[in-house]
Amino acid sequence: MLTPISKATDFLCIIGGAYISKSVVFHDGANFSHIDGLFGLLGVVLPFVTFRLTRVYQPFRHDTMRQSAARAVLAWLIAQLALIGISRAYPGTGLRGEWLVWWTSIAAFALVAGRCAIHVMPSLMRSWRFAPTRVAIVAPFAANGDLLGRIATQTRNAFVPEVIYDPSLPLDTTIEQIPAVHEMNVFKQVMRSRELREIWIVNPPFQPISVENLFVEFRNEFVNIRVLPMSEDATPIGGTIVGHHRGVPVLNVMATPERSWDTIPKEIFDRLFALFILLAISPVLVGIAIAVKLSSPGPALFRQYRKGMNGEVFSIYKFRSMYQSADKPGAVVQAQKGDARITRVGRFLRSTSLDELPQFLNVLKGEMSVVGPRPHAVEHDEYYKDLVQHYMFRYRIKPGITGWAQVNGFRGETAELEKMEGRVRLDLYYIQNWSFWMDMKIILLTIFKGFSGKNVY
């Protein structure tokens, strides 16, 4: 993405330098001839020839700010020296020569300023949706051939490589000034230290890469793993592409569902529905809060840490249903039938799911959705993530107050591992088959089937 911006910036610097210097030298414009105009046109075209010959726009060049500016200015000076040399063969060289000197100086300063601005642009744009994707590249024999150049052609500079993992390397090194590592542990450390969330596997023909190892290593982390199928001429291999990421054809091995325009109705509905519910049932909320306060000492609301989308931890709101300090610090035990920790009012609230109503505040804050996989206590996540396959994938989207698993009978306690596996299986089905109308169906089923369940204690 930065290459087109660099070209446009350089063009504006050169055009702007030509206009300003012309205004300085040719005050009234009367002495500016058509020959001068032709030289001005040549002075705009010629630099981009020298820029190409000096490889100013080579993809993935990780130069320092000084190196980038020096390369652009050098290419500009070469072009202007050639232009001045050609100009001497034509009449009227006095004012034209002065104009070209002013133009050379002004545009050189502008190019340096432009390069500095472009160099800091990625850090400024990093949080924006249209920022280049920062990725880690996994490739066998990455040091052979123009790997990054071929990928740039394929992806139209839609991403910025930060590290390369190549298990065939004998030692850690750099490839085109990008760190290249050969050990998985080091690769994971770099991923975490640089907060990378994208792994792109470059899969040339006859050099297959095992994705199982990557899948196992990153199964509990919110990292997207995609395969970029490549042939030797840097074109995608037909028949293997099943998705796109920012317009680039890829094979998604393990990836968060794309937040496209289709999700906007869900986002709008969540906020409006949550606001409507909170206003409509505000008297009920006040009544429940008073009942909870009178039932036992302690606050009416209970806050507990849960994981949200992509593992971001947030505080979930519930009406307190247990005696204060009933849980031991650092341990969360699922409620069971006849649990002595639960108050009389709390037992009624839990059996009818009325204790969940304050979670519409979480929806209003954007931490949850009305429909989505139910978030579990962080301690439960740590317990189940290695026992249930694809368990953490359910956090690839926003958690919900109700979900496909809940309307299909998986509410409340999940004492047996099979119950949790069933809940996760239905959550994954929802993620893979989501639509706005599926959300409406789940909300209606939640209303008509009621909020109680035989496993809710």
UniProtKB/TrEMBL annotation:
The keyword Iron does not apply. Residues 266-450 form the Bacterial sugar transferase domain. GO terms for cellular component: membrane. The chain crosses the membrane at residues 38-57, 69-87, 99-118, 272-292. Keywords: Membrane, Transferase, Transmembrane, Transmembrane helix. Its main location: membrane. InterPro entries: Bact_transf, EPS_sugar_tfrase, Undecaprenyl-P_gluc_Ptfrase. GO terms for molecular function: phosphotransferase activity, for other substituted phosphate groups. The keyword Coiled coil does not apply. It is a multi-pass membrane protein. Belongs to the bacterial sugar transferase family. This is UDP-phosphate glucose phosphotransferase. It comes from Paraburkholderia hospita.
